[in-house]
Structure of EamA family transporter:
Amino acid sequence: MDLHTSVPPTRLRTFAAGPLPVLVAAALWGTTGTAASFAPADPVSIGAATMGFGGLLLLALAGRSALTAARAAGPGLLLLGALAVAVYPLAFYTSMALAGVAIGTVVALGSAPVFAALLERWADGARLDGRWALAAALSVLGGALLITGGSREGGGDGSVLGVLLGLLAGATYVVYSWVAGRLMRRGHGSRAVLGALFGAGAAVLLPVLALTGGGLLRSTTGVLVAGYLALVPMGLAYVAFGAGLRRTPVRVATTLTLLEPLVAAVLGVVVVGERFGAQSWLGMALLLAGLVLAGTRRP
């Protein structure tokens, strides 16, 4: 079958320019939990190092254009985005430490489409189409099956707090994605916008790292893990995410990033040695179906 007769070129170009970079970013983000598990440090210092150093990297890549984007954003929007950037990694990594890598990841990313829809509906008056609703429902259901079908130990106050912090991570992730998308639609480049937001967020996170990161930075393994997290899931992934966000609505982008817990679960099986039953594999299939449905939406 001729590919050009079965899939319209416009659809392929739209997918390659928007959803595909978001999916690449989500896959790289899915490695964070496994990588962080090797670091001999508390989750707060890991989160502060990851997005603190990563924010400096994104600021350096953006150069002067980040200052232009920051001025255009204004103090209110810039502060909102920077605070969301700063809170997200602290909540996310602590959530994974308390509730488990997969649970923390799925709660944070699984709640994001709901938060994104509510924010876009309230702030932008966006209409929610049935295709997105079905994609989000399949993805969230798949994530829930993935977690409840696993063989992880958990329970107690730590897991409850971990879930609550995962929800906070999902909400703050949506806020800074929305701020970034808003600035990009005003004509600013993705590198400039992410450099401005994450550079401002780094100004908050690096002092946190200075207070909590002694154990992380004194260990060779800790430095290597922090370097990987800052360069790959932060630097490279957010460049790809920013490029995709220019052509993808926030509610769709946050649905696509549900690929992250799928990658995290697979790495848990292959690298960490975790085991999953039939229910969990069904959850992965539903999660993938939701991602495909969201990623192939009509332009």
